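FORM 7B - TANDEM STRUCTURE REPORT

SECTION 1: FIRST PROTEIN
SEQUENCE AND TOKENS:
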Amino acid sequence: MSQKEYIKGRGAQQNSANKFLEHIYEIREDFMEFCRIEGEEPDNNRTQYIPVFPKTIVNKVTSPDIGMSFSMNAYQGCEHGCIYCYARNTHEYWGYSAGLDFERRILVKKDAPKLLEAKLKSKQWKASTIIMSGNTDSYQPAEQKFKITKACLEVFLKYKHPVGIITKNALILRDLDILSALAKDNLIGVNISVTSLSEETRRILEPRTTTIKKRLKTIEILSKNGIPVNAMLAPIIPGINSHEILKLAKSVADSGAVSFAFTVVRLNGAIGQIFTDWIRKAMPNKAEKVLHQIAACHGGNLNDSRFGTRTRGDGKIAEYIHDTVRLARNNYFKDKKFPKLNTNLHEQYKDGQMKLF
């Protein structure tokens, strides 16, 4: 595969059109092509951090297919560049593309800790686990610079409020002291995403993410510090990582995870076009087979919006995945359970300290 055909270090290989815009912003592909031919790194392949100022930070989740009630996102867009990411479509709401823009234009919510504190202090708010984040990774590379996730965790600790984290980055260990303090009151649960045991697969699926070895080590360290970990074996992509389910489950169990979850990949909205373009460049020999098998899990379509089946799939290939998942749970997670987090302490700490009676 020649350099001009594939943008190294990125997942998406194009900027798809934004369905909300009448006038479409386009990357200067002619300029990028010139840079690639000349062996130069194009300036517009660099990540840009763009401050945004939302009025609220906690979102109510109403989807019956998602196991959370509330979420918050310190960042929009994600430099990890996972090609399958369902969050790509949300970048269109901000006026950008779900493709390369999603990876290169990161929207930064510096006011997130202040907005979160206001929410937790509200008399109307009743404690319920808030997930960081339901969309993009809380510990993506931007967090190393801006430390917004860390500041939000300090708010959760101050107000004794339960919080969940979803990440695939070992950077979470930077905040082990705060996580351990939350764990003492059963206020924290962590979800670590492990999509493959193959580094070659990881590099092309998730180009700017922590290595698999470091992720498994992260699960181990968190678990040894009393922080419960659920492994996210997601998404399962037929023909790419579907054969790894049992080995993945055993590896995360051996590392200390107390449960695991999975989804069958779905390619909604612009992601279908982005993924199709990517796989024909990254895996040309198996592209059509993989696309056909994904479609076979969703009634013949890459796009699936059916509640109840959109994240689980149906058909023979999906049934095989479900059967293998059941076997993995029986073999490696029998009698293990992810704990329910503590919602009872928050009312006593709404002013940031223990109320005196």
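SECTION 2: SECOND PROTEIN
SEQUENCE AND TOKENS:
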Amino acid sequence: MKKPFRHKWIAIIAAALSLSLLAAALALVLNGTAGPLRSGMETVSRPFLRLFSPVSEKLHQAETWFRGMESLRAENERLKEDLAALEQEAMTGRLARQENRRLRALLDLGAAGQQLTLESAWVVARTPDNWRRSVTLDKGTRAGIRAGQCVVDEHGALVGRVSQTGTSWCQVSLLTDPAFRLAGMGTNSGVLGSVEGDLGLMTTGEVKLTNLTQADPVQLGEGVVTFAAGETYPSGLVVGTVTSLAEDPGGLTQSGVITPAADLDRLGEVFVITAFREDK
């Protein structure tokens, strides 16, 4: 019996609400019109309008809050975009500074009486076996690269020499390759020797300095540079530093070990010396 009674009251409330809404609507329609009809409609609708006024205010506040949240979300997205743009600008600035340092180093390379023509290239492959040390570059004869030309890193330190060429690629034998040979000179003593790759030193990343007599005053810690007279590579390119000296069998000659100045295990962009002129 309770359920029908409750349903009855719900129906009565719904009917009253409908009448109040209808009265409010008519009151709005009759706005500006005097008379008993308008007064009656206002009297009927006033309690219900008072009842629903707080609800309407809460709905308005909720709408304002949601609009504020949407504005905050949009502002957050704009800030994220601005931050990403600033990070990109910072990265570009760092890369520009690195490029500037690299170019300054290359300009200093030709300061000691050398005029070098450099062709930049990137290492795209390395020799996959344990018997050679060479890399493949992404430039070849189309860029003026020929066999025998020297390759240096961004600091001007010798990396190796071009051994094979194609139209758009070339292979470079690194200093540590057993087939590498180049004339070298001590920067302090002026002693001439042969810079050679050695199979026994290949795993340590070092090279030999051979053809030295016992009387040659080569010292530990002495720098070694390239030496050439009208060859396909210039003199004065930094090879590395003498880290050890040893007497050869027979006791008439000695040889040294050179640690290369270039980091041969982390080569990226390198530079092929396609032409040079040494000022006399």
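SECTION 3: OBSERVATIONS ON SECOND PROTEIN
The chain has a mean pLDDT of 78.
Residues 7 and 30 are 34 Å apart (CA to CA).

SECTION 4: SIGNATURE
Preparer initials: ____
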